[in-house]
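Table S2 (text version). Query chain:
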Amino acid sequence: MASEPITHSINPDLPICTGYLDRTLEIFERHKHPFVLISTLALTWSGVNCCAGDEIDVLVRSSALGGIVKDLVRIGDWEHAKDSDIEELCQDLSFDMESRCDVWLRSSTQDPFFHYLRLWPETLYNLSVDCEKLEIPDVMNKGSILLEEEYYRDTHQRFGPPRGSTHPELLLPPLQTRAKLLRMDLRIYVPTIEDHLNALLYQARAEVRSGRECGNAPALLIQYFVRYLYLDWTPTRHWILNTKIHAPNREYMRSRIDKFQRKKLILWDTALGKYDFNNMPWELSIRGS
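Corresponding structure-token output:
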């Protein structure tokens, strides 16, 4: 379910400065279009500790794409990226530059926090703008944090990503790296883990069928979900396959989980006086037992 609106106020004692997406968010508001982060930046709000790239990935309705792009270029903050720039950024991917239907915009500002804005049509990302969403306070956080705490499956709290309720200090980045400051009323969203993960599974399966990449590396992002949400732990594996994964994606997801090889923990065994190299996170002793 979508979260409640997040509201923040600006400290009047601090100097007024703009966030690097203030004007961009205003364009989306003018088009009555939600600003929905996807790909790696969205994953950092889903408990995944992955590095953000040089671009902000945003989901856009195909019918609104042209108008939003036109207005973003008009305000002067963005310009159309050159094909050579895109080819360099995606040099490790084999997607067809001629047939791509996403839009890359390059920042026109000096020393931008992100150099590119990548707009993904719904049909390419296999996800609707009207999907279940969570509101987030900014584009980035101070690390990675899990907002949907039902995905934290270890009731003994031995392992799992940082959670929003226990690590609120991770929710907002430093003031100078905020996406929005003057317009804190403008909202930013990420898809729920269920909707985002299924979109990635549809992308990955389409790549297998067509032999062409979409430019998002969905198999890698799926692997991140498996790793950081501990989907290879048997109880979590059964739970997510039976309750969250769409039927057409289930067999592919099962194979991705089964192929994942987690590194074992290296722990000092006090009783034996030596290191033990064969521990999985779920094999750690339960506190108080």
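Notes on Table S2: Residues 88 and 288 are 53 Å apart (CA to CA). Residues 193-210 form the longest helix (18 residues).
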